[in-house]
Amino acid sequence: MTHRWKSVSCGCPPPTIDDNISDLQRLLRGIKKGCFDCVEPTYDHPQLLQGLPFALRESNWEVTVILLRGKRSEEPDRIIAVEPGDTTGQLYGLAVDIGTTTVGGLLMDLNSGKVLAESTAYNAQIAYGEDVISRMIYSQRPGGLKTLQEKVVYTINQIIEKVCREMIISPSDISYIMAAGNTVMSHLLLGIDPKYLREAPYVPTCSQFPLTRAADLGVLAHPSVRLFLYPSVASYVGGDIVSGVHACQMHKSPKVTLFIDIGTNGEIVVGNEDWMMCTACSAGPAFEGGGIQCGMRASSGAIENFHISPDTFEPMIITIGRTKPRGICGSGLISIVSELLEAGVIDQQGKFNRKISHHRIREGVSGYEYVLVWEKDTLVGHDIIITEVDIDNLNRAKGAMYAGYQTLLEAVGLTFDDLDRVILAGNFGAYIDLERAICIGLLPDVDRDKFYYIGNASLLGAQISLDDHKRFRERSMVSQLITNMELAENIEFMNHYMAALFLPHTDMSLFPSVQDKLPKGD
Amino acid sequence: MTHRWKSVSCGCPPPTIDDNISDLQRLLRGIKKGCFDCVEPTYDHPQLLQGLPFALRESNWEVTVILLRGKRSEEPDRIIAVEPGDTTGQLYGLAVDIGTTTVGGLLMDLNSGKVLAESTAYNAQIAYGEDVISRMIYSQRPGGLKTLQEKVVYTINQIIEKVCREMIISPSDISYIMAAGNTVMSHLLLGIDPKYLREAPYVPTCSQFPLTRAADLGVLAHPSVRLFLYPSVASYVGGDIVSGVHACQMHKSPKVTLFIDIGTNGEIVVGNEDWMMCTACSAGPAFEGGGIQCGMRASSGAIENFHISPDTFEPMIITIGRTKPRGICGSGLISIVSELLEAGVIDQQGKFNRKISHHRIREGVSGYEYVLVWEKDTLVGHDIIITEVDIDNLNRAKGAMYAGYQTLLEAVGLTFDDLDRVILAGNFGAYIDLERAICIGLLPDVDRDKFYYIGNASLLGAQISLDDHKRFRERSMVSQLITNMELAENIEFMNHYMAALFLPHTDMSLFPSVQDKLPKGD
């Protein structure tokens, strides 16, 4: 396994008065001697030179050079740093996933490929809006863009400090940072105004992001360190998805794969080694507890699992952290709706069965509702309920996702039967209960063995391309292999969406395994 | 005449919802259409992207791109800036000469090659030392390097503001900055510690300076603007000399040329299209009025010209600004010594003729002296005098220069007779009186028609390489064509130097034209 980066220990003979060679020339000669496959290397920042005379003399002309290998063979290598002594044993990289909610980071030993430390932190931009849309709105305020840029950098710096403290190294020991984020997060990190991402026709400023010096952005890093950002495919199919596709190496497998990242903005990729198509569909915030009367994010006190007794209609709930409940998170919502559906408490339109008389089912301000937890058993000052409006919101969200799969598959002439694999990416994907998600129609009703959970695929992609020279180069290629399909004004999508606003679907032939579970007729 | 830079007006078709192209891709396509010889251009700073969406939309997708053409044909062009509308008519460059004493700048119209405005300012580093040695000493104090870096940038910014105000343009309208300075000035500008330039074996950190973003150094410029620095040949033969050699195109002429820049650090280049050798000799500060009892820099009140009546030994003096005198500058010193020599007031050893009894010749604290101006006729509170010690200092300074020419010529097997041209560069060279300089032995006694004054050759070099695409590329080549010779421990040089400590020289056969002017015998 070759690495993109290389430490070269080059002994440079000390200067004499007659040789008339600058420190830099001496170093370049040393590199040439020590690293035969190295094209005449370049460098491009005075900071490198500022430290060079001291690094050379401090270690009696024995230094280690960190090189960034050229992309193509004819492209020169770049000198990223020069360290006194032989430091070839120490080569660190940081993989970062810049999520709208959470930022995750991995510190890696680039010599061994091992993960040394890991950390996550809430994206400090959250104070300015929960989702990408509200962040984009905030960015249009005076100073808003700058604030959001600084906040995401602050979050990345928190992670850097934490992993470095854990390994007792300095942030300036990290040689490369590889990051992936959605298109909005990438724009904000680089301080690029996302104004036109939000307005039709939704144009990003760029998709292939420039090689940036991390320190220029305010990231705690040696001035020479580069921050690489995964390229994006389209305005709403970003570098996080490209990184995820890269992580599962879809582009190298003959298997037809459906890659799904469920969220407010749902991203879908379908394809294999021969072709890949992607799309994004706006599902709304229901999966993150948004727009749900008692909804909340997946944190302590959120109801994440739910059972209903088919006889008594009494509930059993499980919360994150096993505390008294505060509200309902996305996975809890899916549990609740699928259980209510299977028990016949709600029908396939998501309406409460008016024939059932039960003390937990009542008519509230916004129509019928089911009381999950009575006020006295909660950590909040009210009953925790689920309403028909909530169920409608979930229905629309899962309907958008499902219509997205269908539209994309149809566009390439395939059906769900043609799928060899369904890969669930993202934090939400990791917590999803397969049967229940299929029961409400969020996931297609295919052989359960075809489903794979990949977790934070975006971080995984950043990790593998830091670790492996060849995969580093694949990075840009992957984004270019994926063709985007726009759903915003797509008629097929609208038709599929309307048909999907039913639990699990108006066309029950698509959900044979669910058919048997639902109560028969009235 | 081709230009390294090119403005390309590229009409970009506005986006539609289906085309899924980022602003940057749209721009790149436009460039490809508009500029056929343009290799896939790159860009490398997020700042470019930050302005891009607005530039495109502000001007309805009609923008002008400023490109930095790749050095070699296989190297991609770089996008330096994108401006709304068609601004191909406006393309400005700044040439800067960073002198130890004075910084000079020229604002150029890069389309026409015309000089639009010119300005000079004292290098604000002067407050921290008059010459490069004292600047290097100051740089070793805590914060000293930073201060010196900021001061030279402050000076460059003064010049930028002045020339921009004159042409009613903004500093951000300047697209390129081409600078030349000696090795110490170049190091200080880039914030590189010159510590090892001052200690044997006098090693510069680098000779080929990196392509630097001007704004990174604090220069008032658009974030994308590059500052190019002329490469240097050796620690004491810097980019200013390379630029000067470049300006007079020595490397393209068959004529054997002696290029001289007289100063505290005297630089000498000899050669032609086939070969070039250079050296630096430490002449001491006498040419700049340093180490001279009544010496001063060439500013208002400095005696710059002097005549003595061969009969009465009474002086006639001319000062800069025609004010009452304050002191003696370098060119004045040469006038005075050559006149005293020709009049027989001093002998060829620089000693006053003890046989002359005159009220202006007297014995002072440091030996014999001649009163140039009585106190009452000065702007200072004392007589303005020239002493034997002063004459000794000048003798050593001119001796070092002359020994430098000799040593360099001998090293390549030539004599003064082989010279086709003698080019005098630098501010001091512009004010020098040829006959008098030859009379004291500062310049070789060759045919007067062979002498050329080129003035600020360093600024001229920066100007021509900004103006002309081909010359821009020559820049690095010129420095590589010049071979440096170190005089510091050179025995030949020491012998020549000892022989030159005589007015004009111990070997009078080298100065036939002076022989006749001097008084015969005692």
What report would you give on this structure?
2 copies of one chain form a homodimer. Chain A is α/β, with parallel strands linked by helices. Chain A folds into 3 domains: 5-84, Ubiquitin-like (UB roll) (Roll), CATH 3.10.20; 92-229, Domain of unknown function (DUF4445) (Nucleotidyltransferase, domain 5); 250-456 and 467-522, no CATH class. Chain A has helices spanning 23-34, 46-58, 132-139, 144-167, 183-189, 195-198, 239-247, 330-342, 388-411, 426-431, 434-440, 457-467, 469-481, 491-499, 512-515; strands at residues 5-11, 62-68, 78-84, 92-98, 102-109, 115-122, 174-181, 212-213, 226-229, 257-261, 265-271, 276-282, 302-308, 315-319, 327-328, 361-364, 367-373, 384-387, 421-425, 451-455, 482-485. In chain A, strands 6-5-4-7-9-8 form a 6-stranded mixed sheet, with helices on both faces. A 6-stranded mixed sheet of chain A has the order 20-19-10-11-12-21. In chain A, strands 1-2-3 form a 3-stranded antiparallel sheet. In chain A, helix 7 (239-247) crosses helix 12 (457-467) and helix 7 packs across helix 13. Chain A starts with a strand and ends in a 7-residue tail after the last helix. The interface between A and B is large, with 48 and 48 residues.
